[in-house]
Please model this.
Amino acid sequence: MSSPVTNSKPTDSQHEQKQTFGWSREQMAQKAAQDIPDGAYVNLGIGIPEKVARYVPKGREVIYHTENGLLGMGPTPDEDDIDFELINAGKKPVSAIAGAAYFHHADSFAMIRGKHIDICVLGAMQVSQKGDLANWSTGAADAIPAVGGAMDLVAGVKTIFVITQHTTKQGDAKLLENCSYPLTGQGVVSRIYTDLAVIKVTERGFEIVELAPGVDFDYVQQRTACELIRP
Amino acid sequence: MINKLMATPAQAVADIFDGATVMIGGFGESGSPIELIHALIDHGAKNLTVINNNTGSGHVGLAALIENGQVGKMICSFPRTANSTVFPDLYRAGKIVLELVPQGTLAERIRAGGAGIPAFYTATSVGTPLADGKKHEIFDGREYVQELGLKADFALIKSLQADRLGNLRYNKTARNFAPIMAMAANCTIVQSQEYVEAGAIDPEIVVTPGIFVDRIVTVKQPAQESKLVAAGVSYP
Model:
């Protein structure tokens, strides 16, 4: 049985276009979704990670946790069914599947901190080859610091996946020897899904698992600020 | 006979004093006790320390309380929200203090405060700037940081149903911080959509036992923050 979240069909126009170079955001989400096993309890971050739910292969039952207090999160409801007291961590209206449960914040983060959630998919500003993650602050002096549940998720969830563009819009590397931004957690990331490659974080550093269409090892290496390990 | 029912939100918040620490329930607008917050604005207590996950949006509810100059310090996890300009402007001007706490640590600090636990250890924030200056300890080979329990003079929360003895039920994800804040405050004030006789809520489905609740005021149809923000409403 598949979760209702997986029933909504992808509609993003990017998905319709046949990409011959690199992966689109939808395809990055699709890649990550393949690695979510049947029966997993999963927390999805805001942004591209939210798209992962659409691509979990049929036949796998996945239960979604949202840290504001719902296990068994379903898709966006129809306009008529929206209740502003039924929202996700991004404060958007959601639905509850049959068999869902509501709980208070301390219980919700006990699920996270207590290692009961199997997989969390998050965005990133930077990831180091040791698996350090920076995704909450650039450390800029005038920035309003805001952390939410990111530090709790990376410290507590069993497996952390990251979905991110391989470089910043300016072309700077996001995969580095050491993060320059303030950390969210140390040594927490297991796998990274970028527009160029799927990468595993190993004891020896970043290991390429799969290259995107039209992309070769050297192309990815040139856009990464530390040495990559060949597949 | 126990009677926690108050006639109006104004009466329920009348003794909140200058300098008080006030926990306010809600995650964004979901669960925000907006009528109690507006009553606190009318009441005018100043130099408050407010504990909430966010800092409100637009110019109503928590954002309006901050804009009215009543909050000296915010303890929260995510002070940036869509339509939120009040807090960022005051923060940049150095007119409000921020204690930034990871969301789960914030929840556990509140729970611990209410459960008589002065401090605990968590792996959350180890190796990040938010652990700087805090006591670290290794248990079973993993490093943890010490966090302190949080208590408050008052908690303002919202429920779907309250009975005469203060037993509460909530609506969906509006529950968020309310049950733990009710435990951590000296005086917990609830605005409830429904008020029922003792026994009307099955003891098996009570979420917050009445011992944690001091005052109840009925607000049958609470305002919806996002609707007020969309309509450009400012309070007062």
